[in-house]
Amino acid sequence: MSMIDEAVQQADQTAAVLAQPGALSKLGDLFASCFPAASARLVADQRTWQVAGAAAQDSLTAAGVPQAEPFVLPGEPELYARYENVELVRQALAGGDAVAVAIGSGTLNDLVKRASDELGRRYAVVATAASMDGYTAFGASISRDGYKQTLDCPAPLLAVADYDIMAQAPSVMNASGYGDLLGKVVAGADWILADALGVEPIDATVWSLVQASLRSALSDPAGVKAGQAAAVAELSEGLVMSGLAMQAYHGSRPASGSEHLFAHLWEMEGLGVDLKPRRLSHGFKVGLGSIAMAALYELVLELDWSQIDPAAAARRWPSWSQRAALIETKFASSDLTVAALAQSQAKYVDAGAVEARLADLIAQWPALRQRLADQLLPAAELQTRLRTVGAPASPGDIGLTWAALRDTYSRAQLIRSRYTVLDLLAEAAELEPLADRLFEADGFWGRQRG
Ligand SMILES: [Zn+2]
Q1: CA 374–ligand 1 middle distance (angstroms)
Q2: Distance from the CA of 225 to the center of ligand 1, in angstroms?
C-alpha cells in the first residue's frame, strides 16, 4: 500500500486519493465509485480548463458518469477567494444536483469546497499545481467583509493529483507549494515544544504522516523550479500527506506552527493582495515566515536557559487585563483586534502556570534542545532553498518593510490560540529582546539589511 493510501485510512473525510502520473485518466472510475449514481459538474477557470478540462470530461464520459454543463470562470483577472465568489459558485451549482469536480488549485478548490458544503454536498478535486496543502485538508481560506478567514467545510471526498499536469504548472505555483511545505520544518519544532511542555502531545501516527517524508519532499528545490517530474511528484506527495494529516488529527497543528502565524497575519491584513499579475500566494508568505522563525529558533537554541529565573518571569507576567490592553493597541482592524483578544484569551495562563512551565522547560532543556536542533534547518539554508525554487526570501520581496517584519514577531503570537515558541518566549520575557537581536547589525536580518 502506498504512503498516501495508508494516510487516507487515517483520514475520515476523504475516501480516495489518486496521486500519480496520468491519474486524471482514472477520474471517471473513481468518481463513479465515490459518488454512485451521481452526475458530475466540472468547475474550472479558463486556465485550468485548458490544462485539464477535456481530459476530465473524457474520463467521466468513458466511465458512464452523466455530466452537467461545465462551469468555467474567467481566467483573467486572477480569481480571488472572496465570499462573493463562493456565492457565485453555489448559485451555479444550486441549479442542479450534480456533484462538483473542482479543476484547479488553492482558490478554486476553496471556493468549490465551501460552496458545495453550503449546499450539503461533498465534492471532488483535480489538482492542477503543487501550490499548497489544501487539496486534502478541511476548511476554506476565504476573504469575507475584507477579512481573510478560514471557513469551516469538509475536505473533498475524492482528490486526483496528476503529477504530469502538476509538473507543467507555472513554476511560481509549485514554488508556493514548496514554501508551504517548508513551513512544516518549523511547525514540527513548535509541536515538539508544545509536546514537551504538556500543552499538546504529539500524535506519533499523525506526526509521521507529515514528517517522515518531509526532508525528501523538500530535497530538490532546483528540480521543482525546472518542473522536473520526480521533484514535483515528491513535493506534491508531501503536500497531499500534510492535508491528510490535518484530517486525521482534526486540526491544523501537524502542518502549521508559528511560521503560519506570520503568514496568517499578513494574509488577514491583505499583504500583496493587489500584486499583478499574481497575488502574493499563501506559500510565499509561509516561506518567509519559516525563515523568520528558523532565525528566531537559532537564538532560542543558543540561549542559556539556566539563567532564566521562572519566579522573576512570573512576577513580570501581565494579568489578562494588562495583556488585553496591549492587544488593543496592536491591530489597525477592529475585526482583527476582536479575533486576537478571543484567541489570546483562550491560551492565557496565570503567573503560577508560567512559572511552572518555565521551570519544566529548564529541567528538560538539554534533551529538548537536541530534539529541536534535530528537527530544524538553519535559517540561511531555508533562505537559499527558497531562492533556488524561485520564491521570495526576504521581506522586500513581498513588499514588507524591515519595521513591519520586526513588528510581526511581536504580533503573530496574538492572533491564534496555538501554543508555539513565540508563547514560550513571551512568557520568559525573551520575545522582544531576541527579536531585536535579529535586526541588530550582526543579527540574521541585520546583516542583510546592510
Ligand atoms: Zn499552509
Answers
A1: 22
A2: 19
Residues with CB in 5 Å of ion ligand 1: 180
Q: Is the pLDDT reported for residue 68 higher than 80?
A: yes
Model confidence at 146: pLDDT above 80: no
The CATH number that domain 171-449 falls under is: 1.20.1090.10
CA 318 / ligand 1 centre spacing (Å): 31
Domain 3-167 has CATH 3.40.50.1970: yes
Q: What is the pLDDT of residue 429?
A: 96
Q: Where are the domains of the chain?
A: 3-167, 171-449
Question: Are residues 245 and 255 in contact, defined by beta-carbon separation less than 8 angstroms?
Answer: yes
Please name the amino acid found at residue 314.
A
Residue 170 alpha carbon to ligand 1 centre in Å: 19
pTM for the predicted model, two decimal places = 0.97
Q: For residue 182, what is its C-alpha cell?
A: 517548508
pLDDT value of residue 276: 82
Tell which residue, 65, 304, 282, has the closest CA to residue 181. 282
- How many angstroms separate the alpha carbon of residue 396 from the centre of ligand 1? 21
Per-residue pLDDT tens for 72-86?
A: 999 888 889 999 999
What is the rounded CA–CA span in Å between residue 199 and residue 104?
Answer: 37
Question: What is the helix, strand, coil percentage profile of the chain, to 5?
Answer: 60, 10, 30
CA 256–ligand 1 middle distance (angstroms): 7
**Burial of 363 by CB count in 10 Å (0-12 exposed, 13-18 middle, 19+ buried)?**
exposed
Distance 284 CA to ligand 1 centre (A): 10
Structure confidence by residue, pLDDT tens digits, 418-438: 999 999 999 999 999 999 999
Q: What pLDDT band is residue 148 in, cutting at 50, 70 and 90?
A: confident
